[in-house]
Specification:
alpha+beta; 14 strands; Elongation Factor Tu (Ef-tu), domain 3; 4-stranded antiparallel sheet; 6-stranded antiparallel beta barrel; disordered C terminus
């Protein structure tokens, strides 16, 4: 007491009055609390040595395993105007079912008889091509005839040259003969002149010998003139031979030029014919594209164009189609530091959004509401978010795993745990406190040998 009052109260208090204070004794409660604390500590100590399965967690969405089962946009091939819709959103369509009907918007395809017109043009161009081919054949025949005529004319001209050469030789012999006759006549005439001077011959005999001498001279001049004419004929024959070759080469060159022009025209005609045939085929294919059909069985999720009369461009999305009965998979995104620890066929526990689950990541056997899976794909490069994507498919080998819910929709949220090796709980706590990655008993084996093939 503080003794601030002169009156004392403690002597007036009896033991009976403080009996309530005696009932507050806590020695038994303390013992119970101590036992509980010791028991809890013992349990925690035992738990520290229990096995804990390490895991790598990640988030992702439900997807399809194959690209053909994932949502796709149905696109038109040609530009057109929407005339009629044949489906509605949420409708199940089979492969080949009509989704919508288009009409033409390009003026070059407005003609309803365009295929017939193009067919007529193809026929006309085929006739033109046949004409070019016939012209080429005619020119080839003409070239053959010209070459044969050239060969015959050259042979004829060569024979003429040979004849001229023989004539020159014959005339040369005649000239030599006349020269000899002229010298003999000249000698005789001189002898007669000397005999006439000596009185041995008469005037009449001298004149007769003079006439014979003059005749020999005339024959010599005639033979020389004939030889000169023969030589000139030989020269003319050779000139004619050369001129024949030049004239025929000119005609042959002209025919070759005509043939080249015909071949060029034939090539252009065949090109235009091919373009027309291609256009005919394109028009037929284009008219088949006025009806847009479903590429595979699926459900029309959402139409991206509204109403009738709207104009669309080539390759523009029309609607979104979800293929029917896709092979479900889960894509999880994990950190880059955890990717080396994941191999194919690793077990994965999955919790889907909308399905209640109680998950003990280290003790998957006591988890409730989760589903099993196995890693089937590990991306070789990271995603835009810096993490790596893995694909997980259902694991149905063990009876304790239930099939994935049929109500799953692509795009639903997922939380997953990739199961690794078991370690003591104390080791996992120590690893988490130090921020170390999970550890494995042995080095992970890669799926590929680095050369493009599997190990």
């Amino acid at each position: 007491m503080l003794n601030i009052s002169p009156k004392r109260v403690d002597p007036d208090m009896s033991e009976i009055e403080i009996n309530s204070l005696k009932t507050l004794s806590t020695h038994r409660t303390g013992r119970k609390l101590a036992r509980w604390i010791i028991g809890i500590l013992l349990i925690l100590f035992i738990v520290l040595f229990m096995p804990w399965q390490q895991n790598i967690n990640g988030t992702g969405t439900v997807t399809a395993l194959t690209p053909q089962d994932r949502p796709q946009t149905v696109q038109n091939i040609i530009a057109g105007r929407i005339e009629r819709w044949h489906v509605r959103e949420g409708q199940l369509v089979q492969k080949g079912d009509t989704i919508l009907t288009l009409s033409e918007i390009k003026d070059e395809y407005f003609d309803p008889n365009l295929p017939e017109r193009l067919t007529e043009q193809v026929g006309a161009k085929e006739t033109a091509v046949d004409g070019y081919e016939d012209k080429i054949d005619a020119v080839d025949t003409q070239l053959t005839a010209l070459k044969n005529a050239l060969r015959l004319s050259l042979d004829k001209a060569r024979n003429k040259v040979l004849q001229a050469q023989a004539k020159v030789q014959s005339d040369s012999v005649d000239v030599l003969n006349e020269q000899i006759q002229f010298r003999i006549a000249e000698v005789r005439f001189e002898r007669f002149q000397q005999g006439y001077a000596q009185g041995l011959f008469s005037k009449t005999e001298l004149e007769t010998r003079e006439l014979s001498f003059q005749g020999s001279r005339a024959k010599l001049v005639a033979a020389q003139n004939k030889l000169a004419i023969s030589r000139q004929d030989l020269i003319n024959s050779r000139i004619e031979l050369n001129s024949i070759n030049a004239d025929y080469q000119k005609e042959i060159a002209k025919s070759l030029s005509d043939r080249s022009s015909a071949v060029s025209s034939l090539g252009d005609g065949r090109k235009e014919l091919s373009e027309l045939r291609n256009k005919v085929a394109n028009v037929g294919v284009r008219r088949n594209q006025y009806v847009l059909r479903a590429p595979q069985n699926g459900i029309v999720v959402k139409t991206l164009k509204a109403g009738v009369g709207e104009t669309i461009k080539e390759g523009e999305p029309i609607c979104t189609l979800q293929p029917q009965n896709p092979q479900m998979a889960v894509e999880l995104y994990v950190k880059a530091m955890d990717v080396p620890l994941i191999q194919k066929n690793r077990e994965v526990r999955i919790r889907f959004d909308g399905w209640p689950a109680l998950q003990f990541s280290g003790w998957p056997s006591v988890s409730v509401g989760t589903f099993g899976g196995r890693v089937v794909v590990i991306d070789q490069v990271n995603s835009p978010n810096g993490e790596y994507r893995i694909l997980v498919t259902p694991k149905l080998e063990e009876r304790r795993d239930h099939p994935w819910p049929k109500q799953l929709r692509l795009g639903s949220g997922v939380y997953g745990w990739v199961m690794l090796d078991s370690v003591p709980v104390w080791y996992e706590i120590w690893r988490q406190l130090n921020g170390f990655p999970p550890s494995l008993k042995e080095e992970p084996k890669g799926d590929y040998d680095g050369k493009g093939g599997k190990k």
